[in-house]
Design goal:
This protein has 151 residues and is of the alpha+beta class. It has a single domain, classed as Alpha-Beta Plaits, CATH 3.30.70.141. It is 36% helix and 19% strand. It is built from seven helices and four strands, in the order βααβααβααβα. The chain has a four-stranded antiparallel β-sheet with strand order 2-3-1-4. Bound molecules: inosine-5'-diphosphate (IDP) and magnesium ion (MG). The site of inosine-5'-diphosphate (IDP) has 9 residues, from loops. The site of inosine-5'-diphosphate has 9 residues, from loops.
Length: 151
C-alpha cells in the first residue's frame, strides 16, 4: 500500500447539476483526505495544458471548450492507492460503460459530459497537482479517523 496524492476535478456539468456535495461526500466517506480544494474558472491556457496529452485528437478542442465553459472544483486527495481508488470510484470514461455505483455510472450519459476527472497515474498526478495548485495551497494535517483506515 502506498500513500498517494491525486488530482480530482468536478467538471462544469458536475458543478452546474449540483453534484459538488455528492461527489465530495463519496470521497470523504471513503476515507480520502482533502488536502487542497478551490473553485476555478479555467482559462484556455490551463485547459490546454491539462489536456495537453490529447492535443491533436478529435475531442481535444471540444474538451477544452467544455472545461472552460463554467467553473470547476479542483482538489487534491490523499490516501492509500488514492489514484487507482479515485479512478475506480469515477468509473469508465464513457458513462454508458461505467458501472452503476460509480460517479460516472450513476450520473452521466455522454462521454463528453462525464462529470469528474481524476489523475490516471503517479506522473500525471504530480504534473496535474503542480499545474493546478501552488505548494502553499496544499495543507498538511492529520484526520482523526486515519488510524482506523489501516491495520
Ligand atoms: P479520462 O478522463 O477517463 O482519463 P481520457 O481518455 O483521458 O479519459 O479523456 C479526457 C477527457 O476528454 C474525458 O474525460 C472526456 O471529458 C473527454 N473525452 C475523451 N474521449 C472523448 C470522446 O470520444 N468524445 C468526447 N469527449 C471525450
Ligand atoms: Mg485521462
Amino acid at each position: 500500500m502506498e500513500k498517494q496524492r491525486t488530482f480530482v476535478m468536478i467538471k462544469p456539468d458536475g458543478v452546474q447539476r449540483g453534484f459538488i456535495g455528492e461527489i465530495i461526500n463519496r470521497f470523504e466517506k471513503k476515507g480520502l483526505k482533502i488536502v487542497a480544494m478551490k473553485m476555478v474558472s479555467v482559462s484556455k491556457d490551463l485547459a490546454e495544458k491539462h489536456y495537453g496529452i490529447h492535443k491533436g485528437k478529435p475531442f481535444f478542442e471540444p474538451t477544452v471548450k467544455y472545461i472552460t465553459s463554467s467553473p470547476v472544483v479542483a482538489m487534491v486527495l490523499e490516501g492509500f492507492n488514492s489514484i487507482e481508488l479515485v479512478r475506480n470510484m469515477m468509473g469508465k470514461t464513457n458513462p454508458v460503460e461505467a458501472t452503476p455505483g460509480t460517479i460516472r455510472g450513476d450520473f452521466g450519459q455522454f462521454i463528453g459530459r462525464n462529470i469528474v476527472h481524476g489523475s490516471d497515474g503517479l506522473d500525471t498526478a504530480k504534473f496535474e497537482i503542480n499545474l493546478w495548485f501552488k505548494p502553499e495551497e496544499i495543507s498538511k494535517y492529520v484526520r482523526i479517523d486515519e488510524k482506523w483506515l489501516t491495520e
